[in-house]
Amino acid sequence: MAQRAGGRAGGFSLVELMMALAIVGILAVVTYPAFMAQLHKSRRLDAIAALAQVQQAQERWRANNTTYAGSLAALGLSPPGSGRYRVAISDSAAHGYTATASAAESQASDTLCSSLSVTLSGGNTTYSSTGSAAAGTCWNR
Q1: CA distances to 6, 60, 101, 122, 123 from 95, in Å
Q2: pTM of the predicted model, to two decimals?
Q3: Domain boundaries in the chain?
Q4: Structurally, what CATH architecture does the domain formed by 14-138 represent?
Q5: What is the pLDDT of residues 92-139, one digit of tens each?
Q6: For the segment 81-93, what is each residue's pLDDT rounded down to a tens digit?
């Protein structure tokens, strides 16, 4: 340590170091929830993309068949590669279907939008979600 004029050694005292660590800790506690919320929001795009892929494949299927397909395998699709969502098709019939992407693995902690669904019924498409947020928040593209 270098000597200052007046005989004191230069550098940080333990109190100054602890204050700096306390400030960094407070900033981390304040920013972490906002960071996680933004991370969950960005990962919802995986679900939206997977459901859009299902919609396109269903329309190709319906062009050649009298009903919509009842599974991803019938459409020739595989589950999303990220593993953050599980995609399933239900209620498939001649007039429509429901495709749902449910949060899994690291995305399962997203309580605002735990699943996203797209329903086609009689030519009308409806977007919905489960969780504590409104569907418009979850489907914000």
Answers
A1: 88, 15, 21, 5, 7
A2: 0.76
A3: 14-138
A4: 2-Layer Sandwich (3.30)
A5: 888 999 999 999 988 888 888 999 999 999 889 999 999 888 777 888
A6: 778 899 999 998 8
DSSP string, the chain: -PBPTTSPBPS--HHHHHHHHHHHHHHHHHHHHHHHHHHHHHHHHHHHHHHHHHHHHHHHHHHHSSS--SSHHHHT----TT-SEEEEEES--SSEEEEEEEE-GGGGG--S-SEEEEEEETTEEEEEEESSS-HHHHT--
Sheet-wide strand order for 85-90: 85-90, 96-103, 115-121, 124-130
What's phi and psi for 113, nearest 5 deg?
-140, 80
Length, in residues, of the chain: 141
